[in-house]
Amino acid sequence: MGAGVSTTATENDDGGTFSLSSETSLDDIPENCISSMMMNFDPQEICSLARVNKTFHRASSANFVWESKLPQNYKFLLNKVLGEQNLGSMTKKEIYAKLCQPNFFDGGTKEVWLDRSSGQVCMFISSKSFKITGIDDRRYWNYIPTEESRFKSVAYLQQMWWVEVIGELEFEFPKGNYSVFFKLQLGKPSKRLGRRVCNLDQVHGWDIKPVRFQLSTSDGQRSLSQCYLRGSREWAYYHVGDFAIDKPNGPTNINFSLAQIDCTHTKGGLCIDGVVICPKEFTQGLKQF
């Protein structure tokens, strides 16, 4: 790629020769043509093409190329992440790179980022932003530190009769279909001699009655499901529901909850890391969260 093209010679009517073309290379392609072509590739492919030569590298940095890869709500995202900082000096490529990083907001209780390949919005919400019944009473709940969480801590239930966890989010999502999941684990994680261990001593009550999950949005979308919490020692993702953004024209209010309020038995040994909101097609790769 980038090799020159040899000239050819042709005899004219007078017996002389003339050149049909001079030597050409990929460097001779106009930058704006290369940039227009790059709009048809995904971000990772654009970065690969930028290594072809200097012309491709310059063409790959064009603002209109990266603006086409940014989500519709990128200005809203920047305001959430960077607040009132002056963004006038940032190129669209720099903005894309910034939004692909883990970006915390709302006092560090929420994280948003763009998927590097598709530019779609993903979010993780910490358990510290939820309304949890009894969270201030250490007989029932504690926040325990762990490197297994993006937020370095999780909510841990020791024992309680009434378990209810409620979350609320107001956010401007780009057009698309999204899924909501609670990230939960039965058992208390810790480290012993540098190895991961999970204490199951307080795990009980989750096999008697199912947990109810609910989701609702400000535009009337609703979802209700229930399931038993099963397994232990490993983080699991429990589907709360799906919602669609058809006509993005401002923030959408989203409410979600987890509840097991049958007071005939106690429940305990549950860790809550948080809630994942991601494009619906990403649900097969949830372990990345």
UniProtKB/TrEMBL annotation:
Region (Disordered), start-end ranges: 1-24
Compositional bias ranges of the Polar residues kind: 1-10
Occurrences of domain F-box (ranges): 23-69
Pfam families tied to this protein: PP2
Name of the protein: F-box domain-containing protein
